[in-house]
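Please check this today:
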Amino acid sequence: MSSYSPIGPVVGIVGAGQLARMSQPPAIALGVELRVLANSPEESAARVIVDTRIGDYRDLGDLRDFAKGCDAITFDHEHVPTEHIRALAANGYVVHPGADALVHAQDKAVMRERLSEIGVPCPSWARVPSAEDAIRFGEEHGWPVVLKAVRGGYDGRGVWVCRSAVEVTEAFATGVELMAEAFVPFERELAVLVARSPHGQGVSYPVVETVQQDGICVEVLAPAPGLDPEQAAQAQRIGLKIADELDVTGLLAVELFQTARGLVVNELAMRPHNSGHWTIEGSTTSQFEQHLRAVLDLPLGTPKMTAQVVVMANLLGGDDPDLFKRYEHVLAHDPGIKLHFYGKEVRPGRKIGHVTALGSNLDEVRARARHAAVYLMTGEYT
């Protein structure tokens, strides 16, 4: 048990990944004390946050011990069992988002049911208990069919794009509970980040374009270039409506497909999100500060951008683990570039950091972010 004695309001974050780590600087500025529940002292946030507790987020006893003395509890990920969240709330702890909201980010079928009920545009979908059900869905709605793990999938994991009955059968062989969605022929992927406080104040950040590669976001362009203002406003209205209808407290990220027929909601996340990392330098109020404000029911900050264009590029691990030997070049080459390392062991394909560039010309800003990211990851020039 830590002997650390806080002097300000305490926000407990279950999980100690990079989202908790990046919450520390705004917490310092707000006078907020962070406490994290980590699996080990080697995790990203555990390396920088003094009040780190070691425990298992799947163990209700560990969660209760962790929650003692916290003014609010929130999450670095969506994997905490729903029944444990309900138990904490029943014990009198303030938990944001609550179980009734968070389940929509934990269970994709529950999310689709609720979004359909409130009139949010979604792809055609169905629960498919068996491969035969999924094959019938494909015959009715056309191939390919997208099969998704109902719980637990992220960053492209737990998603199968099936073009035949054989591929459906292979997906079901994993033993994972699946749901089926009609394939959406989208033009590009967008995301909108909104925040909502317990008493219902809400704000929306500008809509961004997210560039995906092998199911992983590699680049975020803010604001989404060439997006019709009315469609951008529609995306923001969708985000705020979902937050209100689902009673979300804190950040809500809504991933969207832009199609020839309009916007379609893809996924939800109820926490700071990769599509919002650009806000650290690119917005007056970063998503991390905004989330802390919301869970403590403080007035929300302005989401206004600090530059005309902001581009964030993710750093993915490769064969060479020593990124630091190259960052001197990046900083010297472009003094305006911003680097963020997550304190994580480098593994191929793993998100280990990001870079952000700001300016007024999209092509120029994008080239700067790409140059920095590619050189850091590979040592090669773009």
